[in-house]
Amino acid sequence: MWVSSCGPRRRCHRIRTSGRGRHGPPKCEPRGPGQPDGVNRTSQDRSDRPKPSAQSTEPREPARSEPSPKPKGQDHGTRLTVLVALGANLLIAVAKAVGGLFTGSPALLSEAAHSVADSLNEVFLLAALRRSRRPADSRHPFGYGKERFFWSLLAAVGIFVMGGCFSFFQGFEALKNGGEESSSGYVAGLAVLVVALLAEGASLFRALHQVRGQGGAGRLRDPALRTVVAEDGTAVLGVTFAITGMALHMITGQIVWEASASFAIGALLVGVAFWLGRDAREQLIGRAADPESSGRIRALLEAQPEIDSVEALLTMEIGLDSTLVAARIDLVPGLDSEEVEEVAVRIKRSVAHTVPEADQIFLDVTDAAAARSASRGDGYAEGPDARGERGGA
């Protein structure tokens, strides 16, 4: 709430308060000659104000630096990785489908469905890369960063339905038909799978190379890159299962080996889909920043001499390189409105400099003692919800 009061010849500082502030009432000063009521003094008029001591300003000089620019060029590498995976999966899907129809192999048909699902998922990921970088507008003031998580969730659903469920269906169909099947043409089917294994391995190598080039396994927080690595990794394992099942079928003449390979491929795809879907769900709901970043932000706030205490720190990932930070802080007594504004601007710059992805920063100045007193007076128990620490660091 904005509070102001002043006499006819006095100027008033307008202070925003949260609860019953203990920083005193609005500070009124005599109005200068020719200066209308309610108008702030210019920077020249403020020269008579005592400057902050060197002890409070000198340690925070690095905070005046602007935050580092976001590495948007990393999307180019991720897009290239997705395109490589898409091209490989389309060629492999056609080859597997032709081979599976020719040989009647359930394992090969399961792998064909797997490649079709992967190809569709790559289309989803390309849409995610393009749409998530749209600038913020009035309808979406925090941008479109969460589109990346939404399309990744659709990719996980595609892996589950088109890959996992179809593989289980092929396994049950093979067991239902029973008996021995002719192995004519299985040599050609095995050749197709060997070529598919090489192609999937090359795509996986490309994805892992990008992961290493962009900071190691920590870069897997990018849902698009994480999905490509998961798809290519499961594809290599799935092709291995299919080759093993077809080879054992040729040796023993029992279809049960290929049915088992289809079940193994289905279980693998369902597990990967659950892992990817669970992570996308957490990011869509609103996941807090990693503990390391939250700890650095809290330590920086607590180190400021103007901050008496940090009552709550709330963070949320709103995009791949974008994090929202909201802190409820209690300031030391005696600061007027202009000093509070200067402190807030400096703290925001310091946070953005320390954690570059923190591009949405909000500070709520409150009176901690008054809030606790009011909470106890109303008879409410003081817990994490009362302190506003749900999801905070």
UniProtKB/TrEMBL annotation:
Cellular location(s): Membrane
InterPro entries, A to Z: Cation_efflux, Cation_efflux_TM, Cation_efflux_TMD_sf, SLC30A9
Compositionally biased spans, kind Basic residues: 8-25
Domain of life (superkingdom): Bacteria
GO terms, molecular function: monoatomic cation transmembrane transporter activity
Residue ranges constituting the Cation efflux protein transmembrane domain according to the UniProt record: 82-284
Membrane topology annotation: Multi-pass membrane protein
Stored Gene3D superfamilies: Cation efflux protein transmembrane domain
Name listed for the protein in its UniProt record: Cation diffusion facilitator family transporter
Highest classification ranks of the organism: Bacteria, Bacillati, Actinomycetota, Actinomycetes, Kitasatosporales
